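User: I'm writing a tutorial on reading structure tokens. Could you give me a worked example: one chain, its sequence, then its tokens, then a sentence or two explaining what the tokens reveal?
Assistant: Sure. Here is the example chain.
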Amino acid sequence: MNNIPMLVLSCIVAYLLGSVSSGILVSKIAKGPDLRTVGSKNTGASNVQRTMGWKYGLITFFADALKGVLSCLIAELLTGDHMAALPAGLCSVLGHNWPVFFSFKGGKGVATTAGVMLYCFPIPALICIAGTVALIAAFRFISLGSLFMVVSFAIASIFFSNGNLWIILWACMLMIMCVIRHHANIGRLLKGTENKLGTHSK
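And here are its predicted structure tokens:
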């Protein structure tokens, strides 16, 4: 990576882009509730789906994923290096989780992480996402599927990284951010009180 100034710029742009909360914007356009005060008080697609329905939940999910893709694309275009997409993608997820525009109260980063994964390493990402969809369909726990996605991707990075420790570290950082944001869900999963898909947040 030789173009450090452009790399830094792309990471700043990625964080700011990630900080644009799709859930809050969708809710405002649809004249819905303030997501930070209802349900799980989370601004991500899961809370949008539970409080506003599937249509708005899916719109939010794809908008959040697109933020990750665009952040990575901008980084590659600015630097001319595909590897620049990795730190930019991290910054995009960081912005989504802790958005500067919304008092650092964001989502859990699942959709944005999926977008980043797909852009950077599409084939292993698709395999992990397919497993996630199957797991959610079988057990109806979105949080369990989300955790599976990032954990399986981090494990897979050992094989698709060709021994590049930076790629493995990057995948592990994506996983760690997701796990941190899901700490309450993990507790509820262990207690057997986690919400299933199609139920309201407790």
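What the tokens reveal: The chain has a mean pLDDT of 94. The radius of gyration is 16 Å.
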